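To close the chapter, one final illustration. This time we ask the reader to focus less on the individual chains and more on the assembly as a whole: which components sit near each other, and how the overall shape emerges from the parts.
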Amino acid sequence: MGLKERREREKQARRESILVAARELLHQKGINGASMNQIAKKAELGVATLYSYFTNKEDLFLVLQQEGLDLLREQISEALEGISDPKIRLKTIAFSFLEFSQKRKNYYYIINYFISSPEILFESTLKDQIDLQAERALSVANAVITEGIETGSFINQNTKRSAVTFWALIFGLTQFKKLETTILRDDNHTAIFEHSVDQFIRSISV
Amino acid sequence: MGLKERREREKQARRESILVAARELLHQKGINGASMNQIAKKAELGVATLYSYFTNKEDLFLVLQQEGLDLLREQISEALEGISDPKIRLKTIAFSFLEFSQKRKNYYYIINYFISSPEILFESTLKDQIDLQAERALSVANAVITEGIETGSFINQNTKRSAVTFWALIFGLTQFKKLETTILRDDNHTAIFEHSVDQFIRSISV
Amino acid sequence: MGLKERREREKQARRESILVAARELLHQKGINGASMNQIAKKAELGVATLYSYFTNKEDLFLVLQQEGLDLLREQISEALEGISDPKIRLKTIAFSFLEFSQKRKNYYYIINYFISSPEILFESTLKDQIDLQAERALSVANAVITEGIETGSFINQNTKRSAVTFWALIFGLTQFKKLETTILRDDNHTAIFEHSVDQFIRSISV
Amino acid sequence: MGLKERREREKQARRESILVAARELLHQKGINGASMNQIAKKAELGVATLYSYFTNKEDLFLVLQQEGLDLLREQISEALEGISDPKIRLKTIAFSFLEFSQKRKNYYYIINYFISSPEILFESTLKDQIDLQAERALSVANAVITEGIETGSFINQNTKRSAVTFWALIFGLTQFKKLETTILRDDNHTAIFEHSVDQFIRSISV
DNA sequence: GATGAATGAGCCTTCATTCAT
DNA sequence: GATGAATGAAGGCTCATTCAT
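The assembled structure is written out below.
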């Protein structure tokens, strides 16, 4: 029994070390620089071992994305702790996402990779998993908006639509971060971000 | 004399056929599927021929994106003809973009690709060119909002920020189109889109 | 245990077969004909396999040359066994080289290739390695001449210069072997070679 | 008639401009960097034009080599002017060659290329031409040695063999020039060169 | 006679994946 | 269960050469 458990723990550890290596490479060399061989080398494992833990490269990356989204959710949860005003809660979500995109670039890239790829690229099983994740992300905003409506902070209107709008806005704004050294050089990206989010919140507030 | 012209026309045609093939592949197989060899095969040309029309892959992709943005601008311009109300003009831009993303998928995808790629991927020269293009796109919304402020339709506030918010929103929303068969299956993407855009316009209106 | 050893032996064998193929191609088709792809094909291996044995083409060629020089040194050593007269020893070296150039054409050609290439072709790392090898080759003649001086056979003069002269002469003469069917057709290359070497030895003898 | 002549002159000029471009590129980028396309561009001519003046790349390079050898002969002739002592004449030839290898690197490389390539690479016609050139080069030394014998400066022995030895020596020594920054760093290449040549001359002197 | 456009074959190298051990 | 060796396919790109005009 103890043996079985130890084995299980070792397996998990090995699995995790693969993911660690993958994330690191992803961050260092971008999506194309993170090859299976390099991940294996970095994780100090045989290449074939990777394939006994993950079906293929895409699968590995999907898990990475899920981890990323889990982490994101966690960070948002933590950030929301102790905050009760729905408006501030919404703003907090937005800034958590922005912060995540900067501090966890490697995770952000991979999430972004899956969001931005044309649908065609993924088979339906994979796509379903991605969407499931997306749904969970959406639901966070959904919940806050619902609370806001219930507590009388927000106008009573289609919650899901508002949540979608919210995410679309902050996702779009975050993408534009990379323009800050060129097009947006005469302004401050964070300020724009805040401005936009505030405006959105105001627009759904009573 | 006529001969020279004909040759010139043929060259342009061939150049265009390369771009068409590239766009198609990019849309169908993603960035990794759009290799120079594949493009050449699809265009029914030798690989080396591609290199006599474009310096390298990066150059080709840049031209691809520029053409896409030119077309987008053109379509927006046409759509705006005869419309004078700034609110409607703004909405028209939004829907032109949505329509473009659906009817000109190949063009849309390449634009999207450049927006969504992590900065690292491009050398500065290319990035600058891309940003230049993005700036021109931004300026369309900018102009409309300025008009709106001047004619008293819109609140007098930082125009550029509003334009950025506007684009971020519709860009994000358009990305979510691909969720319409899953997460958004209980609603209509176009309806959500319209709802969001309306809400944005209202939020900057007097 | 025996398994590990066998594997190791197999790896060495495969490595060697790559070198054999490379040498053969280099000799048959010249440097431009000895591409990694061709070598792989000749060795009946996948291209990628070559890269798991050698870092890159340059590395492979370096090893190739080192092996060649090792073999040459070995042959010279063997030929020198039991011979004590410095004059004969020097002559033996010369003829060992000539013999090597004929019997081990593949090896000879690669050495020749590295000597004859314009400096520009190699990065400094490679060049340094080559020179290190060349130095070892030079030292063989150096030693013999030093002995000769000590034993009173040769005039006491700058040893290194004599060694360089010696190698320059026999290297140049060996290159001219290929002229034997045309320019030198009225004489015998080996005879010329011997004549020249004798004359050189005489010129440094007391 | 004048027209015909002018055409002929133009043709020659164009031919020469190709060779000029080729030589320059050869010098700048080495033997592999001098591609037909680049030569054409540098000569401001169409690629196909090159092929109407030269059968193929090898042919062009052969002509280049011939030009090089002509130039070498010319330089040697000039250097020999006014010198009558056969010993000094021989030394002058040697130093002319060394100087040529340094001051006319581009020419020297290409001559070297043809000398050092394995025989196999060239078809017999080409090889014959190369050898013809080599023979002419050889004959210069031949003549001087013959004079020396006649005037009592040199020992009466097989002239041709001496000439071959002479060329082999200076060719070998010149090749070793590239070792001067490494193996020969504690001596001076020119000094070694002179030492060796002097020794050779002494060895054939009465 | 001169040309520029076109090209297939080839370059070196890396990739995701498999399989015998 | 873990692995290292092997690999065909493919990547971007350049080449010498041809051919219609």
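Chain A has two domains: 1-54, 56-204. Chain A touches chain B through 47 residues (CB under 8 Å). With these observations in hand, you are ready for the problems at the end of the chapter.
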